[in-house]
Specification:
Layout (H helix, E strand, L loop, with lengths): L19 E6 L2 E9 L29 H12 L7 E10 L10 E10 L8 E9 L7 E8 L17 E2 L4 H6 L17 E2 L3 E7 L19 H15 L5 E12 L9 E11 L3 E9 L5 E13 L3 H8 L8 E2 L12 E2 L10 H8 L5 H5 L6 H21 L1
Antiparallel strand pairs: 1-2, 2-4, 3-6, 3-10, 4-5, 5-6, 7-8, 8-9, 9-11, 10-13, 11-12, 12-13, 14-15
Length: 396
């Protein structure tokens, strides 16, 4: 496999997540940076609440994509590497979402510490990212630097016995919000092929002109959009199996060359290596669009949300889909209707998200007053609002 020459990341300069240097000691530094809805435009394309556009962006819970946390870690740690180039990452772990919930701006504290011991001329920098209102890190990763690319990952993919096109067309994937990603993060450029335990797909390397305000060509050390696209492909593989997936970790990323030019279509193949009650793991290989391997990933890990299908449909189209069910027979007179919903159709862990989708801004204070109540009481209160609103919508 051909590998390109390494380029020191510090020579690039102009990092979008440069931040403010707070403290710098030998082999360690502390940087603070602000996530800002006015500056970090990509956040508008990664929101958990698919509410109507007239709702303020901050109220739709913009979330920092997992792969952008990798980019932040690389940019900050690059100042400790003494001319080495970026090789990849190990032990990436997202412990909680980094989100802007009802705020326009949030400060991240990024701590980086270079390991004093080097192995095979590889320098390891441990990075922890903590959001302003938390006491412990939300994201941790080891960033690897060296003088030469290394080829340590040799992934073995099972030869597919049956291959089927995805049941979703390209228009459906984004147009019907099967994936919630907005324009700047829409990298899937063809309907993927699914196998029993894997997939093959294609991603488009996008320009970065929609990611940050004030720059049409941001300097990035990795391509966090394409990496996010990998998660999108795996998410599509999970949909027919009623698995709703969000990235939470990576065992190892190994880079073999710099990012391809915008407009390049890169091939991706992935194989699911394990599924349990809570997580899915996969191995991934991404080409560079010219016949070479761009990067390999071992133990990509997704958290599994086992939502009822009605909840998934309601999340992606809350103004059209109904969470509750109608009665088996229509009541009399025709101006009446009956709606019902089971408790297990609204999991306890999704109360906050569903409340944001269901409740009008004027009802927020009523919901907040429920904060100290037992979870079942809050659930019952929210269920009553859901069936009432669905009934009104049905009668319109």
């Amino acid at each position: 496999m051909h590998c390109c020459d390494l380029v020191s990341p510090v020579t690039a300069g102009g990092f979008p997540f440069a931040g403010r240097l707070i403290e710098h000691r030998h082999g360690e530094l502390l940087v603070e940076l602000d996530l800002d809805l006015e500056k970090d435009l990509f956040l508008a394309d990664h929101v958990l609440i698919q509410a109507p556009e007239d709702r303020p962006l901050a109220a739709r819970w913009p979330v920092l994509p997992f792969t952008f946390s990798l980019e932040i870690a690389a940019e900050v740690s690059a100042h400790l590497v003494n001319g080495r180039g970026l090789l990849g990452f190990e032990r990436a772990s997202a412990r909680r979402w980094i989100a802007l919930r009802n705020v326009e701006r949030s400060t991240l504290r990024v701590e980086a510490r270079a390991s004093p011991a080097e192995r095979d001329r590889t320098l390891r920098v441990e990075v922890a990212i903590t959001q302003d209102h938390n006491d412990s890190p939300s994201f941790t990763v080891d960033v690897l630097y060296g003088l030469d690319y290394r080829v340590d990952l040799d992934l073995l993919f099972t030869k597919p016995t049956q291959v089927a096109r995805s049941p979703f067309s390209l228009d459906q994937i984004y147009g019907e919000r099967l994936l919630f990603h907005g324009p700047s993060l829409q990298c899937v450029c063809a309907s993927p092929s699914f196998q029993e335990v894997g997939l093959e797909g294609r991603l488009m390397v996008r320009r970065g002109d929609q990611l940050f305000a004030g720059t049409s060509d941001p300097r990035l050390l990795i391509d966090p959009c394409v990496l996010d696209g990998v998660g999108q492909l795996i998410g599509l593989w999970g949909l027919p199996r009623d698995l709703y997936l969000f990235p939470i970790g990576i065992g190892k990323v190994e880079l073999y060359r710099s990012s391809p030019a915008p407009g390049t279509v890169v091939p991706v193949r992935a194989e699911v290596t394990g599924i349990d009650d809570r997580t899915l793991t996969a191995d991934i290989e991404i080409g560079d669009g010219a016949g070479h391997v761009w990067m390999r990933i071992r133990d990509w890990k997704d958290w599994i949300f086992r939502w009822p299908r009605r909840l998934f449909d309601f999340r992606r189209r809350p103004t059209e889909a109904l969470l509750s069910r109608g009665a088996a027979t229509a009541p009399e007179p025709a101006s009446h209707c009956v709606r019902w919903i089971d408790r297990d159709k609204l999991p306890m862990g999704e109360l906050e998200m569903v409340a944001q989708l269901v409740l009008h801004c004027s009802e927020t204070s009523d919901w907040l007053r429920q904060t100290g109540s037992p979870a079942k009481v809050r659930q019952k209160w929210l269920l009553s609002r859901i069936v009432a609103k669905d009934a009104i919508r049905e009668l319109r």
